[in-house]
Structures are given as structure tokens and as C-alpha cells.
Amino acid sequence: MFAKGVNGSIDFDGKTLEISKKLGLTNVLVASGIRGDKSIPIDQVVSLLFQPAKTMSQGFIQIGQVGVTPPRNGIEMLSDANTVHFEKRHQEDFENLRSAIQKAIDQNKTSQISTAGSSIADELGKLKHLLDIGAIDEEEFADLKRKLING
Questions:
Q1: What percent of the chain has pLDDT above 70?
Q2: Is the overall model pTM greater than 0.70, yes or no?
Q3: Domain span at residue 133?
Q4: Which helix H or strand E contains 125, and what residues bound it?
């Protein structure tokens, strides 16, 4: 799955995200050293932030990665290696990409908590722990719990 935005593109094969950034004048002025391509395995993705584009403003998709501090403000986001901005005309591609990435994140979380020989009660306990520490939210907890119970 591929989506091209204003300041770069993301290619996702189901296992790895390839983020390619292109540098414009704003990026060069705001931050130095953000160049080229970046690969992020899906098991290193901890969050996905999506802001739809509006008529007069760009949207963005931001990939939260293990060990990487997310940008704190809009200026930092412009130069963030894990954020790609897009216009309204690209929105459908980025919505489809977001759905594919989220599905892979959910599958990865499910496989991480599913181990051979574990009982459903053990797995539910692990899910509850992930909820308690904030690794998943209530909606993810309910979805993963349903998948676990229904097989």
C-alpha cells in the first residue's frame, strides 16, 4: 500500500513501513539532518496519529515508534521523520493506509499476547495488563478480547 503526500510518502508491505521524506525549504530551515528513507518494522509501531485534511489545511499521519519521542508542537511536526503531510486530494490514499497499518498493529498485538499453551484466562490477564499500562486503549482492549474469546 502506497500513499504520497506533500512532504513525503509511505509504502507499507504489511510488515514494514518505508517512509520517504522530501526536503523543502521549510524542512531545511526548521531541522537539519532529516533526509532520505526510513524503515520501521510494524512491531516497532506503538501509535498512529491521523488528522484528516480540510479544505484550507493539510492533514497528516504520524507513526509513533518505540524509543522515539513524538514532536511536541506543529513546528517540530513539520520536520518530524515519522510524519507525512497530505492534501485533501490525497486523503483517501492515506485513510486506506491508516486502516492497513492499524490492522497490522492490532494483529501484531494479538500475536504478542498469544503464546503456545496459554489459557484464555492467561491471555485476558495479559490484555488487561496492556490496558492498565496504557499500551492499548479501551476500544482496542474490547476488540482484542472479543477476538481472543471467539478464536
A1: 84
A2: no
A3: 114-150
A4: helix 120-132
Q: Is the pLDDT of residue 74 over 90?
A: no
Residue 107 located in a structural domain: no
56: CATH: 2.30.29
Can you tell me the distance from the alpha carbon of 4 to that of 10, in angstroms, rounded to the nearest whole number?
7
Residue 114 pLDDT greater than 70, yes or no: no
33 and 6 both lie in a single domain: yes
Alpha carbon 65 to its chain's center: 8
Q: In residues, how long is the chain? A: 151
The one-letter amino acid code at 112 reads: Q
Phi, psi of 81 (to 5 degrees): -65, -20
Number of domains in the chain: 2
Rounded Cα distance between 150 and 147, Å, is 5
